[in-house]
Amino acid sequence: MKISAREVPPRSAWALEQAGVHPLLARLFAARGVNGQDDLDDTLARLLPPDTLRGTREAAVLLADAVAADRRICIVADYDCDGATACAVALRGLRRLGARQVTYLVPDRVVDGYGLTPSIARRVAERGADLLVTVDNGIASVDGVAAAQALGLSVLVTDHHLPGPELPAADVLVNPNHPDCGFGSKCIAGVGVMFYVLLALRAELRARGAFDAAPAAPAGGTPVAGRPQPRLDDLLPLVALGTVADVVRLDANNRRLVAQGLRRIRAGVLPPGLAALFRVAGRTPAAATTFDFGFALGPRINAAGRLADMTLGIECLSTDDAARAEELARMLDEINRERRGIEGEMREQALLVAERMFADDQAPPAAITVFDPEFHEGVVGIVASRIKDRYHRPTFVFAASGAEGKSGELKGSGRSIAGFHMRDALDLVAKRHPGVLLRFGGHAMAAGCTLARDRLGEFQSAFAQVAAEWLDAATLTRRLETDGPLAPEYLRIDLVDTLQREVWGQGFAPPTFSEEVEVLSQRLLGEKHLALKLRHQGRPVDGIWFGHTEPLPPRVVLAYRLEADEWQGVRRVRFMIEGAELPATGTTQGHKR
C-alpha cells in the first residue's frame, strides 16, 4: 500500500471559501473536482434535462399511449438493489401517472439467471401483458426482446449497463451508454434511468392536456383534463438508495439525485418500506447518510435477491401498508443475517483457496480465480469483492449453477481494481478462447459470466494472461489516496456530523485523512480488531482498525476516517483506520486486513 494525498487546486478551494463554504469542506470539494459554488447547487432545476437522455421522448409516447388505452404493463426487474428500487419507482410512478394495470416480474437468480430471457418473455406474455418494460437490464437481451416481440408484446428497455456488439431490437431503448446517446451522465444507475423516463412521461401527458399546470400531491387514477399534475419528487429517496447501493460513480447529476433523496428522507418524506428498513437496521432517517444506503439498507435489499426472492424487496419498497412494510423489512433483515453467515464461511474458504495459489514470500498473481463446489452462487460477488480488497487483484469467484439442467455450468462474479476494465477483459477472453464464456456482461469494476465447468482452468489461465498484459507494477500496488493531515481545530464532533451529511460515494470518496501519529496503547478486541489510543497533534484520540490484528509501532503514518463514537451518552471523535505506513521506511500495513 502507498498512502498519498490528493492535490488541492488552491484557486478552487479559495473560490469555495469565498462563497461561504466551510474551509475544510472547501478543501475536500476542491480536491474532488468541484470548482465553485455552482457545482454544489443540488436543486432539482440543475438536473440534466430528461429530453437529453436518448429515447425518453419515444418511451414517453409509448407509455402515454399505453396509459390512454388502459394496456397491461409488466415490469421486468433485475434482482439487485438498483433493480428493486427501479421497479418500485416504476410501479409507483406509472400508477400515479394513470396506469391502472401494472405488474412486475423479477427473475430468480438461480433458476432464470440474469435479464430478459426468452423464458421470462413467455411468462410475461402468459400473464396477459401488452407492454413489457425492463428496468436495470435488457441491453444485452437480444434473444429475450425478440421472443417478447414474437409473442406480440411491445418492449421498452431501460438500462444503464454497457451494450454489447448487438443491440436488442426493442420498440424503444433508453440507455445512457447507447452508442448514439449524448447524455451528460453516463454512470446514472438503472433507477435513475427509470426516474428520467417517468419525468418524460409526465411531460408528455401534460402536453396532451392531462393535467393542470401546477403540480399537486400524488394521486392515482386515469388522467383527465384538469387533473392536478402528480408529483414525482417523493420517489427520490428510492432513487438515492438505488444509486448509492449500485456503487455507480457519483458525478454531479448523481450527487444531485442522491442529495435530493437524502433531503426528503431527513424530513420524514419516505415510503413505509424505507422507513421500516431504517428501523430494523438501527439507523435514524432524520440523520440519514449515504453510508446508510451502502452499508445498512442496500445489503438488506440485496440479500433477498441473493438467497431468496427479490419480490420481497420490491414489495417492501412499493407497499403503502406500514404493517406489511414492517413485516417485510424484518424478513429482509433475517435473510441478510443468513447471508452474512454464508458469506463469512465462503470468504474463509475462498481465502484459503487463494492463498494456495502463491507462497507467503511471493506476490499474488495478476488476477485471482476461485471456485469451490460448496459455494452459494448468490454470494459470489460479495466474496469476490472481499478477496479483491485483500489482495488488490482483479478477482472472479465461481459457484456451481443451481438451475435445473445446468449442473455442468459455473456462474461467476468478478470485481476489479482501478486500471482494469473487467467487462473488456471478459470480452478479450471470449475472443481469444471462443466458447469458453457462455454468457458475460457488466461494467468496468464488476462483471459476471457463465462457463462450462470443464473449462474453468482455461478461463483461469486466459483471465490471468489478460491481467498480466494490462497491469503493471504501479497498477498492482495498492494506493490509498487521502486528504492529507487534519488540522487539530477540526477534531470536533460537530464537524464529523457536518462531513457525514454530505454526499460521498464512488468517484466522490468519503474524506480520509493521513499523517504521522503516536501510538499510546493498543489492544485486540475479540481477536479480530485493533483498538488504539493515539496522540494526534498533541491531542488524545481513540482509534479502531476493524479486521486488523498486527500491532503498530510507537510512531506511524495512519490513514483514517472520522466517526462519532457514543459511549454512555457522550459522543466523541474516533479514527476509523484504513491503512498504515511506517514513516521512516515507507513499509505499509493494511493489505492483509
Give the arrangement of secondary structure elements.
Layout: E1 2-5, H1 10-18, H2 23-31, H3 56-68, E2 73-77, H4 81-96, E3 102-105, H5 118-126, E4 131-135, H6 142-150, E5 154-158, E6 172-174, H7 190-207, E7 211-216, E8 227-230, H8 236-245, H9 252-266, H10 272-280, H11 290-307, H12 311-318, H13 322-355, E9 368-371, H14 380-391, E10 395-400, E11 409-415, H15 422-432, E12 439-442, E13 446-452, H16 456-470, E14 479-482, H17 493-500, E15 513-525, E16 529-536, E17 539-545, E18 555-567, E19 570-581, E20 588-589
Parallel strand pairs: 1-14, 2-3, 2-4, 4-5, 5-6, 7-8, 9-10, 17-19
Antiparallel strand pairs: 10-11, 11-13, 12-13, 15-16, 15-18, 16-17, 18-19, 19-20
Helix pairs in contact: 1-2, 3-7, 4-7, 4-8, 4-12, 5-6, 7-8, 8-9, 8-11, 10-13, 11-12, 11-13, 12-13, 13-14, 15-16
Q: Give the helix level as a range of percent.
A: 25-40%
N-C termini distance: 12 Å
Instruction: Describe the main β-sheet briefly.
Output: 5 strands, parallel
Class by alpha and beta content:
alpha/beta
Q: Helix count?
A: 17
Number of strands: 20
Which overall shape is indicated by the principal axes computed on the Cα atoms? Answer: globular
Strand ordering within the main sheet:
3-2-4-5-6
Mean pLDDT comes to 93
